Please model this.
Amino acid sequence: MRALPIGCGQLMDASSILRGLSILFIAHDLSLAHYISERAVILCCGCVAEMGATDKIFDNPLYPYTKMLISSVPRLDKKWETGKVELKAKNSAYSDGRVYYDRCPVADQGCAKFAPPIVEIESDHYVACYRYIFAKWVQKSALFAD
Model:
């Protein structure tokens, strides 16, 4: 399968603006997806890991799998960095919980029990990760403590 040339991406972007169309663009080429998309959904093992405004996801990835994907994209404006996100060995024993649990560098045993819900962490930026869900809960609880 051939990669979609950037010219086609520009044409798709221009035609959608002119006609008011929405396009579902599924890609493994994150650079092209970032270029032509206003909104993005990152899937991990067929489940939504993170979604929202494309710039928010690419500028501040929250889900560990999203961080790994974005850090693997070569960039011309930055020196190549290695070892940003380290993965655990794959262990398929936790299939009922979080889909990325077996490879997540920040997972704990609680993550294996239930798949996390998708929550809005900031305006138009959603993530399915207990780490951020718990942090948001603590933040809201502090508001009611006074």
About this structure: The chain has five helices and four strands.
